[in-house]
Design brief:
Length: 125
């Protein structure tokens, strides 16, 4: 996975990547142009999305803030829309493909960090 040499704006040990593939391990946060964030935990096989704002209104999808089963990372590269194959309900064997707006950042989180997506969701509850 190619890494960017840019300094991280959050001042943490996070590593910014250019491409993310489903052969990865660990936790990542993918931020799109709409400011939506996708927390991906490859170790537990989940993706958790929080809505971003495109214009004046947040772009909300079903199951936002709830971990869903990540079946595959179809594509995820900075500068292009990402596509994730997810299973929204563990009770049903029906997958869907979620396509993001253009990916602006991919960050690998260090083990001790809670993904910002999950922190924000917990604070809203």
């Amino acid at each position: 996975m190619p890494e960017s040499d840019k300094a991280n704006s959050r001042g943490t040990d996070q590593k910014e990547l250019l491409t993310l593939m489903d052969t990865a391990t660990g936790c990542y946060v993918v931020t799109s142009a709409s400011s939506a964030q996708h927390a991906i935990d490859f170790d537990s096989g989940t993706l958790t999305r929080t809505a971003g704002e495109l214009g004046d209104e947040p772009t909300k999808l079903r199951c936002d803030g709830t971990p869903v089963g990540l079946q595959a990372v179809i594509s995820c590269t900075v500068g292009r829309p990402a596509q994730f194959q997810v299973r929204l309900s563990p009770d049903r064997v029906i997958d869907t493909v979620r396509t993001t707006t253009t990916v602006v950042r991919i960050e690998r989180l260090v083990e001790s960090q809670t993904p910002p997506v999950l922190q924000a969701e917990a604070e809203r509850r």
